[in-house]
Amino acid sequence: MMHMTFYWGRNVNLLFDSWKTNTWFTYSLTLLVCFIFSIFYQYLEDRRLRFKLLSVSNNTNGSVDTTPLLNTKIVGSRWSVGRFAGSVLFGINSALGYFIMLAIMSFNGGVFIAIVVGLAVGYLLFRSGDDEQVVVVDNPCACA
């Protein structure tokens, strides 16, 4: 039966029926995989945002639009290689994000902590630099 509240223990069934942990060694490996997977998610998110910033700055002479919802001009052609590559990166990153969400929904406390710490370490390593304008480009919120 699936847990519906947080629990602590080494017996975890994560994402697939074949991914079960019964020993402390397999549980530790699972936590390590969750940690690394979360760091990799932040790395890919950084790469995707930088790629988008690069393609936007190449097409608009280096100016970053801070009001993307008010801009009616389509940057580049609809079927360009850059847009296709950006959408592939977005799809991969979305899939990774959903896998992370499903792993957290196992409700195991160790998995939760490993993923949250991995996301924080990944953010520290890849996304907390001085170039915060990268975040402004991909801000879907209209309340800036």
TrEMBL record:
Segments traversing the membrane: 24-44, 81-101, 107-126
Pfam families according to UniProt: Ctr
UniProt key word Cytoplasm: no
Keyword list, A-Z: Copper, Copper transport, Ion transport, Membrane, Transmembrane, Transmembrane helix, Transport
Coiled coil: none
GO CC term, one of those recorded: plasma membrane
Signal peptide: none
InterPro entries: Cop_transporter
Localisation per UniProt entry: Membrane
Keyword Transport: yes
Membrane topology: Multi-pass membrane protein
UniProt-recorded Gene Ontology molecular function terms: copper ion transmembrane transporter activity
Protein family (similarity comment): Belongs to the copper transporter (Ctr) (TC 1.A.56) family. SLC31A subfamily.
Annotated protein name in UniProt: Copper transport protein
